[in-house]
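Before relying on records like the one below, remember that each one covers exactly one chain. Contacts with other chains, cofactors or solvent are not represented anywhere in the record.
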Amino acid sequence: MWTPIVLVSLIALTSNLVQGQPADVPLDPIASRILREALADGIDLAPFNFTAPALQEIVAWAHFDAEKSDIPADLLRPARNATTVDVHAHHVPNWFRTIEPSDGGMPSPVWTLESQLQHMANQSIGRSILSIPKPNIFLGDKNATVAIARLLNENTAALVKVLPNRFSFFATSALPYVNESLAEVKRAVETLGAVGVALTSNHEGEYLGNPQFARFFAGMEEMKAIVFVHPANPLMETAGRPCVGKSNRVPSGESQFIILQPWHRFNACRHTKGIAEFFFETARTFMDLALSRTLQNLTHLNWIIPHVGGSLPSIIDRSIREDTAAIMEAFHTRCWWDSAGITYAHQLGGLLAYNISPSFLLYGSDWPWIPAPLVDPAFDTIATSPFLDDAQKQAMRSENVKRLFEGKIEF
């Protein structure tokens, strides 16, 4: 049975949590189903103070009627010229922003459906593939990580069902916990409709080429999964200096703290991690995937590499000196490179120098994490980029992604 505080929270599912949703939302069978199915899968959601607000938001989306909301009708349906598909877009649920108020040195943005749709209209985006790749909020707490992954997948799936012609989503894993991640991703794909899986460059300090993840990637290989990778904060293990963090257990309280595993979020300089470390994180994890042979051995996996590879193109020649042909074959045929950020003015040239085909380039916006003043400049650098012709730019926005997601998304 559920603890009293969670039962009370569920009975109180009356908050107006998403734009236009009626305030009178009764105790819903969807919340009961999520709790029951999680428990059957060995996931007890009851002990956590984020469970009740997460269920509130999921139930609110389940009852949300876009046509009856106050969102302008012209935003709900894409314009005829909205042919771009955005593979790098993030959903930030309210409850998740509460437990992760900042990331990469930047405050977690406020996300609303209307602001997302307005962004899509401004950039002629017909479909966004949403991701929340990071379940590792309470480092070292396996139960919390598994619970967060389950609730994020339920939350994003409920949102996608509101406008299935505008949104798809990548599953959130529970890495570094392999057994739980295999089960969660399989469920998210087969039951909830996820079109792939989103991972971070490291999960609790372990990069993706680590042998402990071999069984997870073997499972993804069997699923012929599309793996979207996003940079994360680098972590530094500091033995004997445990971190201290807010409790994730109910009852909620600002003064509650617990001792976590001995990691510190590491930054080598005074600038925010989003500027100083994220691009190097992408390089670290794909170098690790290559040197561990994960990249070249798993020939049925397709990888989406963010920010046209971050700093990876600048180190390939110097860091990869063995099995070079097989590694480059993987980069050429199973890696897809999204455009998120201002990457097409100069950075794209470094990637294309490795004879990467423009037919493996994808559009990504990084909304809503990209600062608002950079949204239009990032889009403009694609339009003016000297590295692609007009046909290649158009294919990057729509045709390439259709080839990648053939059989997974109905465009």
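The two ends are 43 Å apart (CA to CA).
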